[in-house]
């Protein structure tokens, strides 16, 4: 007879039953469930691809801000709003530095004055100032500082990203600065210089446990982190389908076993036909970007700032979403909108029935802008 020694020993069937009762739309309960112990997190990980990311909106003020549940007090932080679009629940416990909140004109003095937003990944924001980086968990306020960058003067970072969740033993930060890349193994005392010969990597994504990156010319690279950092170019066949306008606005995103590139053809007025999606085929040599006409049962989430990690969700109809859509943020209405790939008309969103075109700004800013995020503790499962 099977005997339980404790809560971690509950059989998988019973754990799945508990998850089903919580429902996919109860994000806070699911986070608490996954944080209970390793066995519960393992059971939960199979359902993570079905969860939509949360919409972090630092441009929406809170009437009743609450103190964060925990903080290491390295920096002064303040609450903003994260929304679960599955049920419109809002969470006021996420934290971002006060000195960098988007749209705040009367922000109190902060130790982060002068810090610039440089990227977001795995539930963390990355800032830079005075030749160093600061990584902040937006849901707890816990922050980690890097060693000083090996540069002569304080220069703006063009891009910064984590290669793995911050708590991972092999987590690195890669930055693009002064036309080269620098890597910091989180917890170490120094940065390592590594860059492709023709220019720095401008964006990375982790696919099947391997780090891939692209530069401004869409050259593809594989980044090896251990035992030492090594960057290797992957030959890719040129395609006439990828036009020049794809070079300025593109996001790498993982959808199951597919590595996709989402390309934007217009920087301001955006509709479903504005986006084009390409799938990387590594089964041939050289590799090839193939045009994707339909996302099938996937939805993609891209943020206002191009340096924020793009995310995906499988079978969004489960929580009321729509497949074959690119979810963005509409600055006019301060709400999300779903744009169906290849369709001229809008899908979901409060402004879609009034205006066939929607103003969606895509660019870079030194301040935090609306973005899609996943809590850091769930990034191990994502």
From TrEMBL:
It holds the Pfam family Beta-prop_KIB1-4. InterPro entries: F-box-like_dom_sf (IPR036047), F-box_dom (IPR001810), KIB1-4_b-propeller (IPR005174). Residues 7-47 form the F-box domain. Gene3D superfamilies: 1.20.1280.50. Residues 109-332 form the KIB1-4 beta-propeller domain. This is F-box domain-containing protein.
